[in-house]
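Homework help board

Subject: predicted structure for assignment chain

Our instructor gave us this sequence and asked us to write out the predicted structure in token form, then describe one feature. I got the tokens but I'm not sure how to describe them. Can anyone check?
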Amino acid sequence: MFNSKIIGLGKYLPENIVTNADLEKIMETSDAWIQERTGIEERRHIAKGDGNSTSMMGVKAARIAIERAGLVPQDIDFILFATLSPDYYFPGSGVLVQEALEIPDCPAMDIRMQCSGFVYAVATADQFIKTGMYKNVLVIGSEYHSGGLDMTTRGRNISVIFGDGAGAVVMTRTENLSEGVLSSHLHSQGKYAEELSLIGPNTGRWVPEIMEANDPEDISYYPYMNGQFVFKNAVVRFAEVIKEGLEKTSWSADQIDLLIPHQANLRIAQFVQKKFGLSDDQVYNNIQRYGNTTAASIPIALTEAWEEGKVEQGTKVVLAAFGSGFTWGSVMIQW
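My token output:
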């Protein structure tokens, strides 16, 4: 019998900082408007020519995580790459990371679960480790949003929210069943799939149709979000899936040492914090600095919290996410 545990963490953020004041120069918005609705003050965007891509940011975060785990890339026997913005339509970004890190023949799987991607990936890694199939699993969340956003007034409700970045963890087996991942809880509700989506291009409107239309006013290439509807569903599902994890582990809310929610919107995190009566020290938020980095947000935040000494042996950590699909999930970890 095995549990899985995290033994190495890493993150990478592009150097290019885009502040709310920078956005005021290219669209009709304001720092006050953005902060009031999202809590975001700045975010990172890949700069043209800086050599970054979704997979390359993942590689940079992974190198740090692997080194901190006391391993070398060749020790990795399974790669899970969570993203909604892969380098290519196919193949997935996981195999690109494998090549860049010179990891020999091993499976590399992309997890396309958007904002819930890292939670789904950790839960997947946990199951493969518990069965004994793999020992050292590299889990990456990486997103390159900025190149696909409508950076005009038309797209401001979405484009001010998202940033680029990557986070990674190395998970391995432990025979101590009282530590590591104690439980994971995954859900989806396809009924609302198009309320937070990027519809085109798609196989129902494939390359010949797109080229024939050649419509500069077509906005289906940009993300769509029914903001208020998503917010209302998010606060409910966050609370439900955290409560589910607490019941499974027999933890009370006041026993949570650190809740790391997906950094979707600071107002959502504050709502959930209030719902469970958690103090500021029990919830980690960094959306103010990085915006919403989708599948990368939780591993970036988890890495930062660990670097700041907020996560150490014995710490009870809760990871929770909600996003497109709709999908949501939580992972309960005894560090």
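Reply (TA_rk): Your tokens look well-formed. For the description, you could write something like this. Residues 180-334 form a domain with the Peroxisomal Thiolase; Chain A, domain 1 fold (CATH 3.40.47.10). That's the kind of observation they're looking for.
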